[in-house]
Amino acid sequence: GLGWYTVNSAYGDTIIMPCRLDVPQNLMFGKWKYEKPDGSPVFIAFRSSTKKSVQYDDVPEYKDRLSLSENYTLSISNARISDEKRFVCMLVTEDNVFEAPTTVKVFKQPSKPEIVSKASFLETEQLKQLGDCISKDSYPDGNITWYRNGKVLQPLEGVVVIIFKKQMDPVTQLYTMTSSLEYKATKADIQMPFTCSVTYYGPSGQKTVYSEQAIFDIYYPTEQVTIQVLPSKNAIKEGDNITLKCLGNGNPPPEEFLFYLPGQPEGIRSSNTYTLTDVRRNATGDYKCSLIDKKSMIASTAITVHYLDLSLNPSGEVTKQIGDALPVSCTISASRNATVVWMKDNIRLRSSPSFSSLQYQDAGNYVCETALQEVEGLKKRESLTLIVEGKPQIKMTKKTDPSGLSKTIICHVEGFPKPAIQWTITGSGSVINQAKESPYINGRYYSKIIISPEENVTLTCTAENQLERTVNSLNVSAISIPEHDEADEISDENREKVNDQAKLIVGIVVGLLLAALVAGVVYWLYMKKSKTASKHVNKDLGNLEENKKLEENNHKTEA
Predict the structure, then answer these.
(1) With 50 as the cut, is the pLDDT of residue 502 above it?
(2) Separation of alpha carbons 161 and 311, rounded Å
(3) Does the chain have fewer CB atoms within 10 Å around its N or its C terminus?
(4) What is the DSSP string of 412-461?
(5) Strand 379-400 to 316-321 pairing
(6) Going from the N-terminus, what domains does the chain have, and what CATH number goes with each?
């Protein structure tokens, strides 16, 4: 007879079983049967060779699932696990029965494996249930494998414990496989992916399906404590708020710590932050924090609270008299070297002001400003408003116009507050123009009038401020009488120019004197040398008369 023949079918597909027999000429009919476990036959399909009719036996599990073709190929739809039997094709003649057996194997691909009952976290040095890998509805049953970062996890006592179990559904005869993993984690397992797979057999051979990755939070104890200061400890100044932040490198991080302030041996229990408000310079020192249950695990940091004090003496509004002395001091006290800048009327001064004899131009608004450049916002400033007062001082000058038709009379006045000027003329003469005043600068200004006196007149200039009233008079000859003019008062700006010119003239004169002195010394040395040479010549000639003449000439030359 024919040997064993196997048909592999996937669960739910149609099983197709050829009869594998040659149809004889005198065939009467063909039949299909399957054998029970005890070997007894169960007939399921019949087909007559003459009537071409097909009959299916009343077998409940195959009701409406069978189809027998003309060549006696049997098809069974919707393959089930229970279809795994030994089927036999029978062709019957009048004198013989031919049989061809076929074995059916049904395979069911399991569901994609899934990691369930996952641990919310794993803990170092603790053997803990990681999760279960489940794959359902497999036939035949499959094997489950665990992986860490793509590498197979092998059982290891106390570190990797794997428990595998399978269960068959009595109705569908499909298997569900479950593999439980207990695992002792280390810090190396942080962000490590865990997966599992199921390996099963299908119609075409062995196959493997993998689960999705699972990553677990790894808990581990704190091994180091660090302390932070907010804001940056290089920029803390008086009045700031300081926040100390303590951190532990464990997972989860500690939620509470002990904070130690300078000079306080007992720690203050707090969350991971501790705030000091409105700190002063005496808060400078070492700050520490530690774990509550392990005080030896401690961290420390040094904090400097920067400060800056400025004292200006005198300050505010100060009124002095012209010519007075006024010492000014700006004293700085700071946590480190500070820069000091003096300003007068918003213009930076090259050095600190000092007044041995106050002048009107010394008046103004002085500011002493200091700052710590490394500490943002730490700067101080104080101001001195200096007022220089003086009684009115008057000087009068006169000048004749080159045309000889008018004279200009000028009243120069110094004083502060600004004196008011009034003119009085005694005598006859026309005033060509009204009094004209110059700008008031550094306590000085002038008023001038132009007159054409017909006779000798007296002009009186009165200057008055809150301190005093000063009067000065000047006699002016008639326009027809020539007289000596007095020079105008030199202004501050012109005075500086004159001083510069005087310095230049003095320099030129000194240079010329030095040059003349050098020329004289050179000339004297030259003549002395010439005299010595003449004496040597006289001795050689031996002529006394000529020697006398030469000496006379030499004396004249020296003279």
Answers:
(1) no
(2) 78
(3) C
(4) EEEEESPPEEEEEEES-EEEEEEEEE---BTTEEEEEEEEEESS-EEEEE
(5) parallel
(6) 6-107 (2.60.40.10), 114-219 (2.60.40.10), 225-304 (2.60.40.10), 308-388 (2.60.40.10), 390-476 (2.60.40.10)
